[in-house]
Amino acid sequence: MIVGSTGSGKSWTTATIIEQVADLPNANMIVFDLHSEYSPLSGHENIKVYRIAGPGDLNNPGDDVIFLPYWLLGYEDMLALILDRTDENAPNQAMAFSNIVVEAKRRILVAEGLNEELETFTIDSPVPYDLTFVIDELTRLNNERVINPGTNREINGPFNGKFSRFLPRLYAKKSDRRYGFLFNLNEEHLHTSYLLSLVNKLMRMADHESTGVKIIDFSEVPSDILPIVISLVARLVFQVQQWSPYDQRHPIALICDEAHLYLPSRQNADASEGRALSHFERIAKEGRKYGVSLLIISQRPSELNTTIMSQCNNVISLRLSNQSDKTAVCNLLPENLGGIQDLLPTLGIGEAIVVGDSCLLPSRIRIKEPIFKPNSNSVKFWNEWCNSINEQNLNNSVQNMRRQTMEEALVVQD
Question: How many helices and strands in the chain, by DSSP H and E?
Fold first, then answer.
């Protein structure tokens, strides 16, 4: 775990570790980059940056754009995304949805001739299915009228009107371009072969065809579903490792930047964060057996999930001033190291206390400056206000907001 107040040097520390990992011949690491901070590290030959598709990528995605199809979501994850648990019809909605999804997956397996998978698949199996078919079936059930055998008169079916609130929510998610990486898919993403393509892109270790460190830019993912989307990638990695024979597993590390945004304490977690926590808690507790490790990075350790924090064998703490944050870190240390709490606020930028298996004794160190610096430098307000050389192009900024793409303004030379 790496913790420290904003501006203390967390990003540089993380970048230094990533660079050192990338220099290893068989490295394998995935970095969850929430603010596009680590894109400059792509200058290293063994580091590749990918982006989760944003609204501007849906019509013309590049090779560095990743789609995470809805069918990769587990059953509970999908329900956390679209089901309102306060709806009195929620149990009926969940039951009908699950039955139709199973049928939709069965149709795909039959169409592609995957007979062995057809005998063993479940609702959580990563098998594509046609969401339009699911919506059509739910609409049919919502409008269904049946004949009453006793009176021979037409009456409402058992699910008639039960999806009047569920279907609009599903339509809204499906049509929202912000969720295009989940729902706005082409034929390639709806084929069973896409899973292998995605896993190869994310998990292949360093060799002549792949880079060892993969940085995934989540900056365009809506914050309300960010926990589910990040946990989808983490769960996929864990499951691939879990289903790999022991002698064929290659260890992989997951770097969770800004972890407090999607790994909060249980009492502060909503439905989507609760699902994400379930996946990450399992990785924290069981990942060692399958060659999956976590590096947790946060500026607010007091807001982090305690189960995940308790499994961290090493703590790198940069400057911390907040009392609750200092207490959260010191609770992870042996009882005889209580004096470290008084030292944390005095650390300079780039200085850290390291405690854990990586060193015999608690050590105060200075972090080596990374070669490729992340986009995390603090803006020097006073200097900029006194003598700024940057002229902000507000017209270009407003256009980028509308188009949901980050484009540099053209400079016209006289």
Answer: 15, 12
